[in-house]
Amino acid sequence: MPHTHASSDGVIELKESLRWRDVAAVAEGKRVILSAAALARVTAGDDRRRTIVASGDRVYGVTTGVGALSEVVVSREAQSALSHNILRSHAVGVGALLPPVETRAIMVAAVNNFAHGRSGVRPAVVAQILDLLNAGCTPSVPRDGSVGYLTHMAHIALTLVGEGAAMSPVDDRETDGAAALARIGREPLRLEAKEGLSLVNGTPCATGMGALLLARLERWLDWADAIAALTFECLEGQDVIFRPESTTLRARPGMALVAARMAKLLEGSVRIEAARGKRTQDALSLRTIPHLHGAVRDVWTNAADCVDRELASVTDNPALLDSADGPFAMSEAHAVSPDIGLAFDQLGVAIAELGMISERRLDRMLNPMLSGLPAFLAGASGAESGFMIAQYTASALVSANRRDGLPASLDGGVTSALQEDMLCHATAAVTKAQAILDRTALILTIELLAAAQACDLVGCVEKLAPRTRQVFGFVRSDVARYADDRPLAGDIARMKARLAETPVERVVPV
């Protein structure tokens, strides 16, 4: 049975569960609806919750407080107040707001979790989130202050009950939660037992933002190959390393994929053909392009599988289950995700390595003793510095990535008076990997601009492979050759933005 279905008008229908690509698509603006089966599961979960509440059994976060207050009994009359108070007390995020696209990713991941039917929230709660999503009304969520999954969702949930703040889809201005709901024809919800806990629980923060990061990185991985190909050509690399006779010696799918892509990108290069046999072997920053770029792709695949598994899982505590004696609540730790933390810690390191090899290729182009190209890719007047200091910037970004490469998973931490004495920091692992990607994207952009500059300086554009010539043309359609005639920072920022929004296949099919 398919997990999702995208109808002809582009609306994503949630059936069994979403996949990471669906989450990213909704974050970027697609609409999402529940199938009849998913709605039935939510309704069944609501029925389980009502039965459990009526039984009077002691249930964490329903008839008791939360965290270290889990032994404090909450009366039936106070259970709704507990739900609302959980949102207010947990909405302690600080710092700059998340971009709307990231908040949307979290929201749709939360809907996916509720659609498993094990949280017990009412269909009205899910409908409120869906209406906000589909109307483009995004709650204001501070980026910092969460050790896992609580504060981001608390700020989102405040909007559902008419509190907090949200960005209006009409004029892109912040308004209070009640006004935001009114603009889309909704009224504030009055939460029932357990709903407040369910709204702040689970792993939608790490899962949603992780899905968005996967989509962004996928595009940059394709660009990394294209950029490396142009640099490889400028430096007259030995293309024997891309032949299947070599790559099949290693059982690494990513390496084989990158080698095939590089061979395709360089197919028909007069410059590469003329350089064959010029050197016994290239430096490792050229020779390991298939190995390192391929390894990053393999790690990306592992992270993508991890996010899909998370989306297919129930990540609520407690979960509402069935037995021969009727519904019951089971307290567990499914709202914690060491899987995501470990996967995205590894992905962050992999992205950092991608930036590192890019900076090394950049340095080789700028060093005339290694490249045979004009020093620092500067003009001959002596008054120009070319890309000399741009390499400093790339080196600084590599160093920052190295510092952020330390695993968030090992941070530990103790909260809630030793009740929560083990933290996995999945959300931090994702946001850290995103910061590493932002820097690596800049490094790759600088490498691309330098490679285009090298092509101009040595006059080899007509000798490039047809595909790398299109990559060169993509650069020159927006950024002219550099002659110390303007701040280079502007070129870097403009080209990075273009690369981020342009799929490689739109420029050159590979």
Automatic annotation (TrEMBL):
Pfam families the record matches: Lyase_aromatic (PF00221)
CDD domains: PAL-HAL (cd00332)
Protein name: Histidine ammonia-lyase
Gene symbol of the encoding locus: hutH2
A GO MF label: ammonia-lyase activity
Zinc in keyword set: no
Lineage: superkingdom: Bacteria
Keyword Lyase: yes
Keywords assigned: Lyase
Matches recorded under SUPFAM superfamilies: L-aspartase-like
